[in-house]
Structure formats: structure tokens, C-alpha cells
Amino acid sequence: MADETTHVAEVGSNNFEMEDISKVDCKMLDCFTKLINEVESERIHGGIALLKYLIQKNSEHNDSQEFKYAMKRLIRSLGSSKTSSRIGFYTTLTGFLTMNPDTSIENFLSIVDNELQPVNSNSKSENGDIYMGRILGYGALIRSKILSKSSSAIQLQTIQNLISAGKQRSYLSFVSVSFLVEFVNQVDTNCIKRSIWPIIEKEFGKPWAEQTLDSFYVLLVIKNKCPSLVNDKFSKTHFGTEHIVTKESMNDIVKLLMGLSRIISCHHPVFKLFCENLKSTELIIDFWTRIDQKFAKPSKTDEYLVIQILKLILSNIVDKSILPSLLSPNYVQHMLKKCSGSKNHNKDEVLLGFKEVLNLLISATNSDDTKLKIRIAVLKKLILYPGDLMIEKKTGTKIIQMLTGNLNLDGIKKVSKIYRGIIENTISRDKSNVQAESFWTNAERIYAAHLLTRLIGHPKTLMDREWRLDQLKFLFTYGLCEVPNVGIDLAPQFKETFYHALDHKLPRLNDLRSILSELVHFVNINLKEQTLKLRNPLTNEVKNSWEKVIHSIKNLENNSKKIEAVPVFHTMNLHMGLQLFSDPQMAIMAIDELQSCYERVLKQTRKHKTGSNKKLNDEPEWVEVVVDLLLSFYSKNSHLLRSLVGCVFPHICSYVTPTAIHQILAVLDVTNEKGPLVTRNSYDNEEEISSDVESDSDSEEDNKSDGENTNDEMETSSDNDSDSNEESMSENEDETLTDRLRMAVSQALGDVQMDDDDINVDNIGEEEGKRLDESLAAAFRILRENRQSRSKKQEKSAQALTHFRIRVIDLLETYLECAPSMAIVLDMLLPLFTLLEYCIKDPYQKPLYNRVRSCLKILSMVKKFKDTENVDEELLIVILKALIEKGERTTSIYHEISDKIAECCTFLVRCAQQAIVSTDTIIKIYQENLTVFFKKRDCVLSPLLFKSVLQLQWEGNWELAPLLVDFAFDSTVRSFRRGYALEFLIVFYSNSRLVHLDTRHSDVRMKLEKTLCSCTMATLQEIINMHKIENEQVVTSNGTAIGKEVRQRYIFLLLTLLRSIYMHHLKQAWNWNDIGNILTTYRAHVSLAKDTKVAYNRLAVQIGIPVNMSQKKAKNKQNAIVNGEIKNATNNVEQFNNTQENGSIKSDSDISTSQRHEFKKKQRNKSKQRDKQLLKKEARMLRQKVTSESFEPFNFSSFVFNDQPDKDVSLFENGNSQIGQTSSNSSQKRKSISSGNKAKKRKSMQTA
């Protein structure tokens, strides 16, 4: 029975219940027990069971004692002190009333009054529970809609009782009001006027001072449902205003709504309803103005509540013009201050709610119906007073970026004026105190410059060249020239933002040339006229270089000759001219190289016109010099220069020579002792290094800190020693470590030389021994330090080298996408594989490893070449052998790169076809490796090597296919390798363009398919014979035995191959009737796995043989020896013979495949267990025999029992009993016998 809290009011009714409790069904009592369970699922099960019981009893006898008891207990238990109990009983009661709408409401109310009657003698908490029970009882009537169908008198009385019960305790008011509002929404206007409004007007028609959230909520609900009731007369009478919500009553409303005693009240539905009623713009602004006044000194509850109110307003906002007004000074300032002072943004509920408010503000502002004027006003409120320029950093959001990202060009121009005003320090920072001058800090001005740089990269500004140019001129002036209000601290940061602004990509190279040209000429004119004065004056060398680059730029712009390299030289000269103000040493060198290269291009153009092809001795091609220059740009820690390389290199790809590519590959050469980089200025922090690899990242990511220095330089040359301490290094590096250790040990031994003879330790003195201990410890510490270094992070120089090589891979990929020369592409293969092997050994090279694999993928997919010059059979053979041969690679490394080897070997075959080169030697190489793959057990070749080439329309495949047929049916080849041969043949026959359209090799195909036909029939017949049992022996065919276990995977592949061939087979080569008969016989003798069965059925449909065949039962009912198993390593192992045990035969046709598998497994286990039991039994018998050797047979007839306490009876294992006295002699005798028996037992066990 339920263990409930019993109130005093229930005692009187319990006497009657105790009399009839024996008559109540126990099942019903169990249901009541479940209703008070803390677990929700238990309560649900109990409620459902009780409802079924009550409905049954109600339909039979609605006046039965059990039904009355159940109803009384349900209603009485609504007043339980446990929340879980109230939930269970209320849910069940409401469900019953809903399912039985004809329930007498008078009887129900009578039970409520009798069972839930508060008594003065009860405690306050008990009476509170009783009032809660009454409210829940009335709520059940409302929720089940029984009350809405009752008379007006009952409705009026019930509503009165509901409101009265809610007034008894403060925490009951909301519960009763919730049921009241639900009832209001159920009934029509006439019912409200008749049954509800008289009580509402009496109870809730009070002035503002006496109003509560609940009463205000009820009035708003009725006002929306029946505006004629809460009319002007009612409002003037009780509130003194024409309407409830007016400008005059706003102070009282704010005081009512904000005067919460508990934070939980923030979720009261009155706030949502009130915000929905605030449709007038003036009322929202007036309401929010009074809310903002509260935030002069807000409480914790105010913070929670205003977050909820803002969410509701922004979610239901119609007029977007009020958005700037919601960013009021007190509230925004308070929240920004709270964000700045809080360390746990992700845990503070108020700050999390404020982020949600900002997201709603973004959605409302970026909507299509929001005007540009409103968007700019919102941005000003966020950036200027009362907001903060650093609002994104303080709140952890991207509100400014998201708002500016949706602006049009006019909006971007207006926002840029705000940023420029902050940079110039002409806009007031704080409007709260107009009289006092407020200046922007250096950090804020730097941040505004970064924001302006982001705007320059906005997609909407790409078409407005003049505006972009104006911003670049502004940043150049503030970054590199003397400006009154820019100090030493600000100038370097503004200079950085200028070069950052140059980094933004443009859709066309000509657009970039146009903007940079106007910018350079602007700088040149102002420097000549001295209208701009550089902060750091140029040296004479830099001035000469500037004049030289200006002259070159003018010549390139005035060049009427159509030279394709002009855009490249023009762009690079423009950039290098601007780099003179940042890195003059590098820029001077680059300008000189560019000028000499361009002069060489002009000479080559003149010679080409005159027909002279003579080349100057020992002079590199201009493109080689340019590539070397681009590589030096890549080595710089400058995103701008890397972007310049990305813009320029695609335009010179058509001029690239093998020497130029070898320059790039030399950077990737890991065997070179001198690395391509040397650090001049060490990196200040790791972020600068890690940023190098992100060559394609957006320029916005470089604005993470205001004081980042990105002027560190890297130049071509030298050091890669840090890689020697990594875990997986090359063998040469391991040998170096061994040599160091050997040398250190040799020096430690000193006079004791390491000869071939052993060292006599006796000849070493004590002092010498101590010295040796210390020296050897120091020597072997090398190994220890090496092991410790493996767990350390990669050194910065090595990390910079990795990132540099990653960027260089970009050049190779760009070249491969621009119709490259085949000879140059072939030159890339082996260096890339060498680099790939190096990356596998070094765990720090994972990013480079991924890029090299990507580059090899692009390389193997190249189909269009500029030319095929210098490509011959010898070159292709050398590369092919170098790729396929294992060489010095370890097996693990070879397996890891095997997929790329397969792709590139197939690429070489395609190159041979495209270059019209003889492929006889290539075919021979593939044949040799194919033989090794099937014959050599330790072969490391991947099946992909042959699968990929068999997919090509290559004549050499006709030389490989006959070998595959031989290997597929060769008994000396391992079974899984034979399966590979069938897979290769399936791939070959799937190559329809080669097999079915190539008529030149019809003879080869005829011979091939005849061999396939005969071998297939022989193999299937052999398997059938292996399953025929005659006279307990296996019958084999006269042909060659299979010699290996035939796996079902092999049969599956064979059937799939036959189906592929049947589609376009040569009729002269195949006898499908014989094959069909053999397959039919085979199917009758074996049971197939799922995949094999599907393959068989598909082939059977094609060649017209029965699909479903019942297995042939074995004639011999004796024990069958299973010799012809067909085992499948990948699919489940299945046996095809009928199994017999203890005279009972079970047929495979009667058992499913899985059940048969389990049955066979159990039989094998039982057989093993039976053998073990026989061995144990035999051993036990031997032990018994040995034990009983020294004892005589016992005769019961001569036995005389003496009941003496000093006698003892000892039982033995063999079942014979022997009486022995408990004397010392008998015990000694037993010990000697026992010891002797143990030795004999061990001997007998060994014999067994």
C-alpha cells in the first residue's frame, strides 16, 4: 500500500476505508504504490494500469466500493506533500476525467470538499498542501474540459474556490491563475462575462499599488480575449488612465514588473504577453527608458529580467527604427563593464543571455526590411558611446564584423569615415560629458586601423577602385609619413596595416596593377613636391633604387610591344617599389634582378624576331631568376609577399624551364645537408611561425593582437640540424648518432683502447675505474638526451622549414594545373616520393605529408601536356623501376605509399601512350612484378598497382591477362592470391573499351576465354568430387587436384567473373550448357554463403539454370569424414557435409547457415570434451588400480564393528573402505602409503 503522508483531515474518512480495505483488489493497490514512485516511467505504468482498472469498474458498477475508494484516494492524494506523488495522482485523475467526460461534477466537488478540507489543528505546511490539492482538483476539471460544460453556478463557485485557494499562500497564486487563464481560453465571451468576469472584477480590479504579476497577467489575458470588459471605464475606475498600458502608467508597470522577489519569476508568462502588447513605438521607447534608469544600480534579478525582456522585444519587433534606442547608455555600459570584469563568460548566465541578445540584434538589423540609416545608427551605438570600439573582444562575439559584412557600398563608406575619424582622433570618444575632451587610446586607434583594413577587403568594394585607392593613400600617409598626432608607438602599427591592406586579393591582375600604379605615382609625386615627408628618410641607395623602379614602371606602362611577361614584371616592380619603405635591402636586390631579367626578355624578343637563337654563355633564363626571386619571397615572413607570388607565378608557368622546376625541387630535397633556410632574426613568438603555413587564409586573421611584429626575415641557405633528434629519422642520421656515441665511448676509455681483444678488468685501478664510470656515464647520456628530445616540440627553425616547403608545394600544384611539360612533370615524381618517405618518418611533418600526397594526386591526374619533348622509353623505365622496387624503404613505409605508387605508375603508362613511346619493356616489368606478386611469399607489392593499370585502355593489358588466368587456377599459388587474380580479371573484363572494342587482339582473347572455360569447369568438377562420399573415402578427379583449401570468397569471385564475361563473351570459346550443368551439380552438393549465393543466383538467371536447389542427402548413414571443406576467411566458415553424431543425422538443408555453423562448432567442442573425458577416465582407473595394489579385498561378512572413540574410518577413492586405528603407527603407515601412491599416480598419469 502506498506509504503516504496522512493529514488530520483524513482521519475521519479512514475509519470507513479500513472496514472495506479487505474488499479492494490488490492489483489496484499496487497501482497506487507506483504512482508515488520518483521514477517517471514507473508512475506512467502505474497510471495506465489504474486507468484501465477504473474504466472497467466504471463501466460495470460506477457505484462500487472499489471505484469510490479509488476516486477518493486519487483526489485526497492531490494534497500530498511529495511533488512526485502529486504529479502521479494529478496526471491519472486528469486522464480519467478526460476519458470519462460524463463524470458527475457535483460528486467530484463533494469529494474535494470532504477529502481536502483544511483544519486549524493542522500545521501551516499541511494546510498549504491541502490548498494545493484543491487547486489541482479544480485544475483537473478545467484541463479535462468538464467544467466548461457545466452550469454557470458551478463554474462561478469553482472559479471562486480556485482563486480563494490561490490566495492562501503566495506560491499558490501562480498555479491557480494558470488554471484560470486556461479556462478563460477554453470558453467564449458570453461565458466569461457570465461566470468569470464578476469574480475577476471583484478580486483583481484594484489600483497599481495592490496589483501583482498574477493579477496583471489575468487582466492582460482578458483584455486580449474580451476588450469590451477591460475597457476605458474599468481602467479609469481602478488605474486612473484611459488604458491599462499607457505612457502615464508606465512608471507603475515598470515598478510592478521589476519588483521581483525571486529570480525564478523572470520566466512568468506576463512578460511575454506584455511585450506582445507593446506594439506602439513610443511605448516601447518609453518603457525601455524607464528600464534603463534602473541600471544606474541594478540588482542581480534586474539583470536576469532585462535579458528576458530584451529577447522578447527583439523577437516580436515590427518597427526596426527602435533598435538604436534599445542600446541605451546605462544598460550597455553596465553590461560591457560586466563583460570586462568577468573571467568566466561561458558560465555566467547573464553574459550568455547577453550574447543571445546581441545575436538577436544582429538578426533584426541584418533583415532585408531594415534601412541603411538604422543599420549605421546601430553600428554607431556599438562602436561609439555608449558602446565600445573593443566590443567584440569584450563580449567574445563578432557583432561588428557580422553587421558590416551585410552592408552595401554606401554603408561601408559611412563606416569607414567613423574608423578614419577614430584614427585621426577627430571624433569624440564619450558623449556623456561633452565639455570634457576625451581622446582615443593608441590601442583603439590601432584597432580602428585594422578594422578599416578589413573594410578594404570587403567584396562590395572590389568595383570601387577610387575608394580603395583613397584608403590606401590614407594608410600610407599615417603609416609612413610624419603626421602631427601620430607618435613613435603608433607609426609602426599603422605601417603594418598599410602593407596588410595591400594584401587583399583582387579578381584580376590588371585591377591590382592599376591600383598599385596610381598609388606608386601618388607617392612619387608627393615625395618630389615634398607635400609628404617620410618619417624615416630614404638613404641615397634607396633613393637611387626608387628612381630606378619608377623608371622601370614607366617603361613597362608605356611599352607598346605585346610581351606576355609585362604584367608579371609590372606587378613585381610595383610591389618592390613599395617594399623599399619596409625592407629596403630585399627590395633593392629584387629590383636589380627584375631589371636584368626584363632586359634579357627584351633581348630574347629581338633575337626571336631576327631569327637568331644564340644563347649567352653561362647566363640563366630570365624565368629561372624570377623563380629564384619568388622562392626568396616565400621564405619571408610576410603574407603580402606570399600573396604576390600567388598572383604572379600562374602567369609565368608557360615559360617555366626544367632548371626552374629543379630550383623548386631543390628546396624539397631532404638529402641536402644544407637546408634552404637560415634564420637571421629569430621569431619572437610561435604565432608568427604558425601563421606562415596559412598562405591562403583571409587577411582578417592577422589582426589578433595590436602589437604583433611581422617583420622578421628568413633568407635562402642553411640549417636543418634540429631534425636529427626526432623519433623516426633516416638511416644516415641514426648512423651519425651511433658514431657520436662510439666516439664518446672511445674518448671516455682513454688509455684503455678498444681493441679486438677483451679488456682485462683486473688491470684497471680503483681511481681509473671511477674515472671510467663517470666518463662512460657522460658518453651514454647522449642516448638519454636523444630519447628525451623525441618528446619535445619541434624547434622553430625546423617548423619554419616545414612551412616553407608547404608553400613551395603550392608552386608545384599551380604549375601542374597550367598544361605543364611532360618531361618536367616526370622530373618531379622521384623527389616528391623521397619527400613523402621523409615525412612518414618524422611525426612533425604531418602537414607537409598531407600536402605532398595532394600534390601527387594532382600530378597523377594530369592529362593535358604542353609538349612531350625529351620523353623516351628509357626515362619512363628508370622512373617506373625506381617507384616499384622496394629498395631501401622499409615494409611499413612501402605499404603506406603504395596507393600513390600505383597512381603514379599508371600515370607513367598513360605518359608512354601519349608520348607514343614503345611499351615493350614496361609490359615486361609489369609481367615480372605480377609473377612476383603471385609466386613470392614476402612480396610487398600492392594489388592497386595492377588494378589501376588494368583499367586503362592499354594494349599491354592483353599481355597481362593470360598470366592472370594461369595464376587464378594454379594450385601452387596461395588461395587468397588466386582470389586476387580473379579480381584482376573482373577489372580487366569491366574495361569495356579495351575488351569489347579492341578487335586487333581477338586471337588472344579467344585463347584466353577458352582457357578460362576449361579451367572453370575443371575447378568446379574438382570441388564436386571432393564432396562425394563413397565407401567413406573421397573421390578425386583424374585431373590436377586443387591442392589448397577452396574458399567461398574464391567461388564468389569466380561466379562474378563468369557473369562479367557472359555479357560480351565469344560464343566459340564457351560451352555454357556444360558450365550450367556443372554449376547445377555443384549447387546441389554445397551450401553457399550469402554473397556467394547472390552471385550464383545472378549468374543462374543469365545462363538459364535453376536458382534454388535442394541439397543431395548423403546415402551413407555412418560417421562421415569431413575432407572437402570450403572455408572462407572473410565470410563465415561453412561446412557442406552432413554431420552425424550418436546415430542421429542432421541435414544442412534443414538448418540455416548460421545455425549450421553453430551446430558444427558445438559438435567439434563436444568431440574435444569427450576425448578429454575419456582420457580423464582412463587416468582415474589407472590411479585406482595403483592405489588398490597394497590392499586386500574387504569382506563385509567378517567385519566386526567396535564402537571405540579412538578408531577412525578412512575412505579411499576406489570405493573400498579400510579400518585404521588412530594410533601413531597407523598414521605413519598411511603417510608412507600415501607418499608411495603419489609417485605411482604421477607415473600412471605420464603413461596415460
Keywords:
two-stranded antiparallel sheet, RNA binding, disordered N terminus, 8 strands, sequence-specific DNA binding, 1248 residues, extended, mainly alpha, transcription corepressor activity, disordered C terminus
Give your account of this protein's structure:
This protein is mainly alpha-helical. Among the domains are: 23-187; 190-244, no CATH class; 246-406; 413-605 and 621-653, no CATH class; 823-933, no CATH class; 990-1029 and 1043-1104. It has 53 helices and eight strands. Strand 7 and strand 8 form a beta hairpin. Helix 23 (409-424) runs antiparallel to helix 24 and helix 52 (1153-1187) packs across helix 53. It starts with 10 loop residues before the first helix and ends with a helix.
Question: In a few lines, what is going on in this structure?
Answer:
The chain is mostly helical and 1248 residues long.
Give the strand order of the largest sheet, numbering strands 1, 2, ... along the chain: 1-2
Instruction: List low-confidence stretches.
Output: 1-22, 679-735, 753-757, 1029-1045, 1110-1152, 1194-1235, 1237-1248
Total strands: 8
Helix content: 55-70%
* End-to-end CA span: 67 Å
Largest sheet: 2 strands, antiparallel
| Strand proportion | under 5%
Count of DSSP helices?
Answer: 53
Rg, please?
A: 48 Å
* Mean of residue pLDDT values: 78
Shape: extended
Which structural class best describes the helix and strand composition? mainly alpha
